Amino acid sequence: MAAAAPPPPPVPAPTTLPNPTPTGHPLFARVRLADPSDVPHIHKLILQLAVFEHLTHLVSATEDSLSSTFFTSPPFHSFTIFVLEVSPNPFLPTLLHPPSQPPFSPITRTLTLDLPIDDPEKETFRSVNSDGFDVVVAGFVLFFPNYSTFLGKPGFYVEDLFVRDCYRSKGLGKMLLSAVAAQAVKMGYGRVEWVVLDWNVKAIKFYEEMGAKVLEEWRICRLTGEALQAYGNAAN
Amino acid sequence: MAAAAPPPPPVPAPTTLPNPTPTGHPLFARVRLADPSDVPHIHKLILQLAVFEHLTHLVSATEDSLSSTFFTSPPFHSFTIFVLEVSPNPFLPTLLHPPSQPPFSPITRTLTLDLPIDDPEKETFRSVNSDGFDVVVAGFVLFFPNYSTFLGKPGFYVEDLFVRDCYRSKGLGKMLLSAVAAQAVKMGYGRVEWVVLDWNVKAIKFYEEMGAKVLEEWRICRLTGEALQAYGNAAN
């Protein structure tokens, strides 16, 4: 029908030109592979995630327990973490986190904000090696390979995706999740999966809009603590 | 209250002695690590699982796709499969599947059945290298490491647990799941998790009786197919 529509009326000459230089505040964002120096920040982000999910009573992770279980395999073959950093200044790849890990080239985006962000935890989350560059850690995603026997191929499972409060609703969570999806596509993997709390309708809407399906019929079963010990011991 | 109960009456002398030699039929069961020669059986079991779950339309796995994605890492560090074998005869560890993989010693159980099992697919599922020993593959479990950031340690996720129809309700599914739980305990892992369809009340009851918790609030989100491709491509 659009092809049969009458031609548009002539456009009147503009009386004012659009502003060629936007007056917004730029925020530079970067997704990169985490390394061991990021563990203190990751630990703090995990605690903030637990507060958000009303699940602080379940947290027993320490910096030591994270350090001893992360980075034991090459990235993407086991537990893998992307860190999200933001800065009011452009990233200089040769100066910040110079070891550019070959399996992953950092992804950068530039946002334009109406107002600069007032980050109350700027000092706590200042990036390692960021002296003089005003870079802070704003979030992370932890993921690892899973397997679909129906597809006969691996995928990625996203265990945690978190962006600090003052950086939310700016597309940064989407940037992290997209980075995982892009890596899955690059590796020929079949799926990216994660879980969401059924009361988190805002998140569910967001995931559905990006094309994800929420599997209503499946429930997670968990064997942990004393029940795991008892059941495991009974096998021998 | 039991301690205050009156003493039981004297037991009369039995007029017939209990049968000291049970007349049941023994079924010997063994859980061992799968190897590449098991792939044809595993593929057939995956198809049977899809039929059971009413999800055959989702299956695109082939023997080739399984072969190219399994056994790429040492067992327990990535995708790992235990095969369940059964036989009317005791297993002779030195004769069947002689390469006793060092990271896992096979687990055996002996069941006593009232009637021998009539396995209509005995020839299809006859074990590799079982010539003359009457061993068949009766089920499998596929699992891999996952990670709990709250615990700060890994666990195992069980993607598939399946026992063929004629071998069900004999404790063999429990034997497979126990083998995974025992391995988790052995490795100091914090959890074993899996999913169940919410209409499968028999399975849910079984899992709850073994001490597992069903997480009612969580829903799985899945990004796959064209939506995954589109989302992943948008990141670059």
Describe what is shown at a glance:
Helix content of chain A is 23%, strand content 28%.
CATH architecture of chain A: 3-Layer(aba) Sandwich
Largest interface by Cβ-Cβ < 8 Å: A-B, 81 and 81 residues
Major β-sheet strand ordering of chain A: 3-1-2-4-5-6
Instruction: Kindly name the structural category of chain A.
Output: alpha+beta
Largest sheet of chain A: 6 strands, mixed
The CATH topology label of chain A is Aminopeptidase
The count of strands of chain A amounts to 8
C-alpha termini separation of chain A: 72 Å
**The top level CATH class name of chain A:** Alpha Beta
Number of individual domains of chain A: 1
Q: Radius of gyration of chain A, rounded?
A: 22 Å
List the uncertain runs of chain A.
1-20
Order of helices and strands of chain A: EHHEEEEHEHEEH
**Gross morphology of chain A:** globular
Give an overview in words.
Two copies of one chain form a homodimer. The longest helix of chain A has 15 residues, at 172-186. Chain A is an alpha+beta fold and 236 residues long. In chain A, 23% of the residues lie in helices and 28% in strands. In chain A, a hairpin with a 4-residue loop joins strand 4 and strand 5. In chain A, strands 3-1-2-4-5-6 form a six-stranded mixed β-sheet. Chain A has one domain (25-234): Aminopeptidase. Strand 6 (191-197) of chain A pairs antiparallel with strand 8 of chain B.
